[in-house]
Design a protein that fits this description.
158 residues
């Protein structure tokens, strides 16, 4: 597949995901390098949705370590149970935060972040990484984002 994405304007968020996900799947399906795939997924989602920050934290030595991302510089390491990412990892569940200022213990890697979704990536009953997406707007993320992003994350080979 060519490394260009076809992204339509003025369509619903659901239609954007339905258009984008097959393109991203095609981009990673035959690539075996994890970092290359995480980098391309971050870039593709950033290009399509213009999120403030999108990237991956990988579980290494019992902490989350910054992986491929797109956006402003980020926190490098996050402990289990700390912030939205660490809480998602600890609970092994998707967290959607409409207003990060109301999330107790939120780690403000960027003062521009207003809302956030974090989705754990689970393999063999263990969280191996999390996808973290931040927006400059309040209430950006919902169950639709969780559904389509989770579907995409299931394609990643760890």
């Amino acid at each position: 597949m060519a490394e260009d994405l076809t992204i339509s304007n003025n369509i619903s968020k659901e239609e954007q995901y339905k258009e984008l996900i097959p393109q991203l799947q095609a981009l990673i399906i035959e690539e075996t390098d994890l970092i290359a795939n995480l980098a391309n997924l971050s870039a593709g989602l950033k290009e399509a949705f213009d999120f403030l920050w999108i990237g991956f934290y990988l579980v290494k030595n019992n902490e989350l370590v910054l992986g491929p991302f797109q956006g402003p510089v980020a926190c490098t390491r996050i402990q289990k149970g700390k912030g939205v990412c660490g809480s998602s990892w600890e609970k092994a569940e998707t967290l959607i935060v409409a207003d990060v200022t109301k999330f107790e213990g939120h780690i403000a890697c960027s003062s521009w972040s207003q809302s956030e979704i974090v989705i754990p990536i689970v393999r063999n009953a263990q969280v191996v990484a999390v996808l973290d997406v931040d927006s400059k707007e309040l209430n950006t993320f919902d169950a639709l984002d969780a559904h389509f992003l989770s579907m995409l994350l299931n394609e990643i080979k760890f």
